[in-house]
């Protein structure tokens, strides 16, 4: 659900002024305000799929935290986020719907004790039976025919490329080989391996591709895609030596084999989660996040529709912990995503956020301080840049992806302060000085415009001419 003042309960806080991008080191210098900038609010309706894709940036809170209030009396102020959805832990609603393995059709997999469910390996499942049930699941969970939100399919039991099913996922190798051997008992191991890989990849593609096709037919306005795709496997920070963050060439080549997925997806949802091995390693975190986002941009640019939005999944804490990200970490994950041209970010969290009163209070404190201020900063900055550089018809994208220019409000001119009125977000941006021409000039030096659909030109100032069929 949305949070805010109108019927759909969404408030997006944006200003008319322009701004300047600043590095993470400058954020701490934001002083108290001298004069106040009046900011306005707008509501995101659900009548057109363009509302989300035609925003410079928006944030999603996607964590089951309602227990904090209902069970422990701890109220979390989530008003800084454009979309908040955690009803009944199901993540189903008008604006974001997540389909887990047991919520969409008959997804074949092996359970925790390696027992097959719906056939185990995809080539042993029934695509037609899966689609029959999936159609009913979509109609039940997204009853609105005009749905135009995020539609994320979270299938993590197996990976569609044979080579990537290592470690505990090797059960899919074993199951696939067993099927081939049963049909061809006298084949050599090499013959079995080749055929098993072929059958597995054909079947996995069938399940994934046809599922997205079904989703797009049933709810064409939805932004359909698979969670965690693309992934570039840039985990080399776990080894000794200098970490570059770059995706291994082999993994990029493997991602090129998934062109069918990028073409059928109407949005991409890579993840930029940080494990504790990256704690305190600011440079490595920046490179890790940067190249995962750049890989999503790369595969998108190979598709037939190069405007598909990218929504990285991020976390406010290191994985498997409540060790919250520092402000520098937020800059190197969320901030990097915004600067590179991501359409938004999904902040995902698990049940540990609301497991105890202490956990709820810890999340509350983090939201009320570091995270809340930062979300307001980058959201306001993204909209200001869009207005001042891209005619409010596009989003600002860093010209040189390897630089460290960010879409942050200039701390010499702006302040993020507690909101005086009760309604609306806890924080708001206040301008203390006006140097619009200088700000705009510097923005144009560092960012170019990625125009929204229907607009073109260096500053997205020209409507795309209508195509005549006469």
CATH level-3 fold name:
TIM Barrel
What's the story with the biggest beta sheet? 4 strands, parallel
Can you tell me the CATH class?
A: Alpha Beta
Could you tell me how far the N terminus lies from the C terminus, measured between alpha carbons in angstroms? 44 Å
Shape: globular
Q: Which class of secondary structure composition applies to the elements?
A: alpha/beta
Give the tally of structural domains: 1
The tally of beta strands, per DSSP, is 17
Indicate the low-confidence ranges by residue numbers. Answer: 1-50
What is the ordering of alpha helices and beta strands? EEHEHEEEEHEHHEHHHEHEHEEEHEEE
**CA-atom Rg in angstroms:** 23 Å
Care to give the gist of this entry?
By secondary structure, the chain is α/β, with parallel strands linked by helices.
Index terms:
hydrolase, Aldolase_TIM, globular, disordered N terminus, 13% strand, lysosome, GH, three-stranded parallel beta sheet, 34% helix, alpha/beta, 470 residues
List the helices and strands and how they pair.
Layout: E1 12-14, E2 40-42, H1 50-53, E3 58-62, H2 67-72, E4 83-84, E5 96-100, E6 109-110, E7 116-117, H3 127-141, E8 150-154, H4 171-183, H5 189-218, E9 223-226, H6 249-256, H7 259-264, H8 282-300, E10 313-314, H9 327-340, E11 344-348, H10 357-389, E12 394-398, E13 414-418, E14 427-431, H11 436-446, E15 447-451, E16 455-456, E17 462-463
Helix pairs in contact: 3-5, 4-5, 8-9, 9-10
InterPro entries: Aldolase_TIM, GH, Hyaluronidase
GO cellular component, one term: lysosome
Disulfide bonds: 68-360, 232-247, 385-396, 390-449, 451-460
């Amino acid at each position: 659900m949305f949070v805010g003042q109108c019927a759909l309960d969404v408030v997006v806080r944006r200003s008319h002024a322009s701004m300047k991008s600043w590095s993470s080191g400058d954020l701490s210098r934001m002083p108290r305000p001298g004069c106040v900038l009046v900011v306005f609010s707008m509501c995101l309706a659900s009548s057109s799929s363009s509302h989300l894709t035609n925003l410079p940036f928006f944030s999603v809170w996607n964590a089951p935290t309602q227990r904090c209030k209902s069970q422990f009396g701890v109220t979390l102020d989530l008003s800084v986020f454009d979309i908040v959805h955690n009803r009944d832990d199901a993540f189903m609603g008008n604006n974001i719907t997540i389909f887990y393995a047991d919520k969409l059709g008959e997804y074949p997999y092996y359970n925790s004790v390696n027992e097959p469910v719906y056939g185990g390996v995809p080539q042993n499942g029934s695509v037609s039976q899966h689609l029959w049930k999936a159609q009913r699941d979509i109609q039940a969970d997204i009853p609105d025919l005009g749905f135009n939100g995020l539609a994320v399919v979270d299938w993590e039991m197996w990976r569609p490329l044979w080579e990537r099913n290592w470690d505990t996922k090797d059960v899919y190798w074993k199951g696939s080989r067993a099927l081939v051997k049963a049909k061809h008992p006298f084949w050599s191991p090499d013959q079995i391996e080749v055929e098993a890989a072929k059958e597995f990849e054909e079947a996995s593609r069938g399940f994934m591709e046809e599922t997205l096709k079904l989703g797009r037919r049933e709810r064409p306005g939805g932004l359909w895609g698979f969670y965690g795709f693309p992934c570039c496997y840039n985990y080399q920070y776990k080894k000794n030596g200098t970490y570059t963050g770059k995706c291994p060439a082999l993994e990029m080549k493997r991602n090129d084999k998934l062109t069918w997925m990028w073409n059928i997806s109407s949005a991409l949802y890579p993840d930029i989660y940080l494990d504790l091995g990256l704690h305190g390693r600011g440079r490595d975190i920046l490179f890790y996040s940067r190249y995962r986002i750049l890989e999503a941009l790369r595969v998108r640019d190979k598709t037939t529709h190069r405007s598909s939005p990218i929504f990285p999944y991020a976390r406010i804490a290191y994985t498997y912990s409540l060790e919250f990200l520092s402000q520098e970490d937020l800059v190197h994950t969320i901030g990097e995503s915004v600067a590179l041209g991501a359409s938004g970010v999904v902040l995902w969290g698990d049940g540990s956020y609301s497991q105890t009163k202490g956990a709820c209070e810890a999340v509350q404190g983090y939201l009320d301080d570091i995270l809340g201020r930062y979300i307001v900063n980058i959201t306001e900055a993204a909209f200001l840049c869009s207005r001042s550089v891209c005619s409010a018809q596009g989003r600002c994208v860093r010209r040189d992806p390897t630089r460290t220019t960010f879409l942050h409000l200039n701390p010499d001119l702006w302040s993020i302060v507690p909101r005086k009125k009760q309604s609306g977000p806890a924080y708001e941006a206040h301008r203390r000085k006006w140097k619009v021409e200088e700000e705009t000039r510097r923005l144009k030096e560092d960012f170019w415009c990625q125009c929204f659909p229907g607009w073109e030109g260096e500053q997205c100032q020209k409507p795309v001419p209508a195509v005549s069929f006469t």
